[in-house]
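Appendix B. Raw example, untouched.
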Amino acid sequence: MKIVVLGGGESGVGAAYLAKKKGLNVFLSDKGAIKNDFKKQLIDAEIEFEEGQHDEARILEADWVIKSPGIPKKADIIFKINQKGIRLSSEIEFAAEFTPAKIIAITGSNGKTTTTSLIYHILKSDNLKVGLAGNIGKSFARQVADQNFDYYVLEVSSFQLDDIQNFRPYISLLLNLSQDHLDQYNYNYEDYALAKFRIAENQENDNFFIYNKDDEMSMSLLEKLAVRAKKIPFSTKEKVKQGGFVHKDKIVVKLEDEFSMKIAELSLVGNHNIANSLAASIASKILNISNESIRNSLMTFQAVEHRLEQVAQINGVTFINDSKATNVNAAYFALESMNQPTVWIVGGVDKGNDYTEIENLVKRKVKAIVCLGIDNQTIIDFFKDKKESIYSTSSMEEAVKVCKSLTEEGDTVLLSPCCASFDLFENYEDRGNQFKAEVLKNKID
């Protein structure tokens, strides 16, 4: 079987490595430059590759093409692969075919990384043999090749789910839906939401689908779609017969038995993290983790980097890095949890954002807006009649300096950009790391 892998990053190189280890004929192609570290891995594994171009003739001879999630669906080479009827899969689809491990897969517009990391923390703390992969950590395919885990906890994006055929998690979680990546889904919210629901499309009645009963779009689509897995809801607004809910000052999970703990004991703060903790607790109960173990894990879990991460307090001003908030709904959760006057850093590559969702929060909680991007006009145009203090910046150094000049003791500076990062940064991690470096540099100064 001829395998072609498109993309020479973490997932692509991992997929090529797994294919090679399984004795398959594999070739990797990246239209851009491959980083030296990944190039070394390919050479060490004796995997043939090219960079800076696509050898279309060779690619179109493949029996199976594995596509990295960063390659747009509308790319010319993808069109040609589909036209020829060649099987096109994501790394998660490819790797899942080579492991008997139980897969817990998490998707949603917001909270994926936090909830994935939390479930992994719970399972790891209970001494299960478990891997963490997908959109987080080391490549799923590489772990399948080299490890012998009984469970995998995978953070899964809509782009990865676009390219599945047989992917069937034991437990799937759909945390929430909000308008994101609409530029990749014909600016159609339902198309994007349906891509997320593909996480459950191959599940059968011996599998589990955990969903958010408070999420309007999820509930609307659940009425139309034939989800065969056992459906288990969670809600922070109402009690459910089976699933997870909030009762007074506690989270409660009712399945065959009951688990509960005080919200005040959770290590994660904010209403959205109560929902994430409920979803993670349901998955853990399905896997027969003890109540004591779940409680201890929920109390000891450390928040994910770049997600409402407190960087420093300087002269009474708190600096918070929420660089992972790449859509409006994520920024909504961040702004909602602010309790002090906030200088808000926002901007980047707009993905068809509708800022009306956060308009009232900005009016109530934000004292100044600092735009950070190559083109800040969309944000300025939306908020100019709603906030007097709006500043345009085009580097992290400039943005942090402006924020410092605007704040006084008791204020918060929040980086929660609503947008993708690749106009000025490599990715959201680079953006968050630059923010932290600038904040701490100013502290030293």
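End of appendix B.
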